[in-house]
Design a protein that fits this description.
The structure is a single chain. This protein is of the alpha+beta class. The chain contains 7 helices and 9 strands; from the N terminus they run ααααβαβαβαββββββ. The protein has 2 domains: 56 residues; 196 residues, no CATH class. It is elongated. InterPro entries: Chorismate_II_sf, CM_dom_sf, CM_II_prokaryot.
Length: 256
């Protein structure tokens, strides 16, 4: 390894005074520096492309947020399929940050979180999903958060493990909004839902979210339902039925 490279990674040492162990460590550090340079160049290139993508996006059915959950799902699934299993958690976290910063080049995402029960879990779920590039803040009024999302200013993350049935309004009052993600305990049912003015064609592939009258036992056609909450005869549930948002069966979105 050239002496100049040794001094770059270990400037306080004289190469002639280095032990074999220090020489080996310096070589590894130099290798990391080279990889960091490659990562930086590629990341900045990706950000530049993401900015162009933002300019090219065109929602076909009126104004929607620039979020494309289906595209994010595809990108993450492709990357995770290539990742070594022992690196899966690290890769997912890194890629969500990369996607979040790319989205920020199209305009910083504003996220309002309402969760009177276990607010830390809801906030952490939002931070993990949207990354540190997003502006996330806690709010006290779920209806105000829904209005914020309906205006296209950003998205709302709202708890469903509460006595406030804000989700009934997704059928009655907030038809322009769609559920596009859910957060909760690992491997469990979601305790909060992400809601936004999402192009229905851009919803992720996964379980549908339904708000309907009656219970959560399913429709008798073989499609299971998992109840999340109930209120005065209304039920919020997940289903594996392939439903279209806004249809008569009460589909209000999807969770990937």
């Amino acid at each position: 390894m050239p002496a100049s490279n040794l001094q770059q990674v270990w400037p306080e040492m004289n190469p002639e005074d280095m032990s074999p162990e220090q020489m080996a460590l310096a070589a590894l550090r130099h290798e990391i520096d080279l990889v960091d340079d490659e990562i930086l160049a590629l990341f900045q290139r990706r950000l530049a492309i993401a900015a162009k993508v933002g300019q090219a996006k065109d929602a076909p059915h009126g104004p929607h947020t620039k979020l494309r959950p289906d595209r994010e799902q595809t990108v993450l699934s492709r990357v995770m399929a290539k990742a070594d299993p022992e690196n899966a958690v690290a890769v997912e976290g890194l890629w969500r940050e990369i996607v979040g910063w790319g989205l920020a080049r199209q305009g910083q995402l504003q996220v309002q979180v309402w969760a009177p029960v276990d607010p830390t879990r809801a906030f952490d779920g939002a931070r993990h999903r949207f990354g540190t590039a997003a502006a996330i803040r806690m709010v006290r009024d779920p209806q105000a958060a829904l209005a914020f999302a309906a205006e296209g200013k950003g998205v709302a993350v709202l708890a469903v493990n509460t006595e406030d049935p804000w989700w009934v309004g997704l059928r009655r009052d907030w038809s322009s909004l769609s559920v596009f993600d859910g957060f909760g305990a690992a491997g469990g049912q979601p305790t909060s839902l992400a809601v936004g003015k999402i192009d229905p064609a851009a919803l992720p592939k996964g379980r549908r979210v339904v708000v309907s009258a009656g219970g959560d036992a399913g429709d008798g056609g073989g499609a299971r339902r998992w109840g999340l909450n109930t209120h005065h005869g209304w039920t919020l549930a997940l289903t594996d039925a392939d439903l279209t948002p806004g249809d008569a069966e009460g589909c209000v979105g999807a969770i990937g």
